[in-house]
Amino acid sequence: MQQAFDQHIKSHFPFLLEQKVLVATSGGLDSMVLTDLCLKSNLDIGLAHCNFKLRDKESDAEEAFILEYAKTHSLAVFSKQFDTTHIAESSKISIQMAARQLRYNFFDTLSKTHQFESLLTAHHADDNLETFFINLNRGSGIDGLLGIPKINQNIIRPLLPFTRDQIYNYAKKNHIEWCDDSSNASLKYTRNALRHQLIPELKTIFPTIIEALHNTQSNLEASQDLLKNHITDIEKRVVQFSNSNGTHYSVEQLKLLNPLRSYIFPLFGKFGFTDLDELCNLIDAQSGKQIHSKTHTILKDRAVLILTPKDVSNAHFFLTINDIKSGIKLDKFGVFLNFREDIKLGDSSKNTLFLDYDKLQLPLTLRSWTAGDFFYPSGMSGKKKLSKYFKDEKLSLIQKSKVLLLCSNDDVVWVVGMRPDARFLATSKTKHILNVNVVHATD
After folding, report:
1. CB-CB contact of 218 with 225 (8 Å)
2. Ranges assigned E (strand) in 246-289
3. Of 84, 121, 354, 385, which shows the fewest CB atoms inside 10 Å?
4. DSSP 286
């Protein structure tokens, strides 16, 4: 196995031979074999261990085992204890999810602090088989059926070609010690149930199932590459606009895709949307209809579907505009503002304003709206709260979150791209005219 491992590193991860590498080490069979293989391959490694305090003395014994192993082999070791149960409860997530987040956040911090260029984990071929069935049950597309990736950013999984039996036999032959995790025997976890019940039966019926899965996934990878190239071409047709704040898909162009259902999943499945009926129905839904995944929202807005990350928020945006003689480009918001002094009064529109320069107090500010903001909308009588104005305009939550205000001191001059404040508009008596033009994502 050592020879096969060395050849695998040279063929697929030769950069590891020149890097400083962090090995995620639980103390279990898989990670201890990985550590031993790395040492015998002369990789420059350090060890990282997480004590999640979930199994009392057993968790502490694993940590002590790792620390002693590192000392014996003169390896740098980094170990951290977590109150995982409390963190999971306070975050309202599962123990498994909390442990995963804590683990990879810890590894990321270590990599940045100590200049580790790659992180190695001990996932192997049997883990990949289990992951295949877990993703199959979730209704996954090709990405999920491909299983565990060999490389994911700086995370490398060099044991994926090797089975659990190969790893166990190597450990026994080389007298490698490890700690047994008692929780691995519990069938309340889906992965353990697969490992102890389904997979052994499958191997009895199909002795070469792991090799067959490897061949199947290789074929799927080829199909995935073909599909990705085609979808990239399709996205050029259906995407009207895209930046970090959102992506606009043309409903008209989406309806031209035939068959539509075959394209919907590769277009939107990568954002967590898996219900094809829900996606197809959204295309013909009334404006304002929304659907949600864990990470994104899609809003039907007249002739477009607007895909927005859920972590996008403009709630605290504030920018001081000191120089009104040049344009301002805000890629995050899909907005470009251009200022210029003008000698001729024109007609204001939602995207172009003619302001009375002498009524403005510089510097101007561009900011998000807040509850309690009001303005004197042109074409209306008196003042109006922005919250009421947005309600009358039937803006969705996503649309309201993207609204920016151009202000003079505390006064709203313009609800950008929508309606100006009547108090600052230029008239025929205005001596100094400031022309403001906006190019917005929705234009």
Report:
1. no
2. 246-250
3. 385
4. P
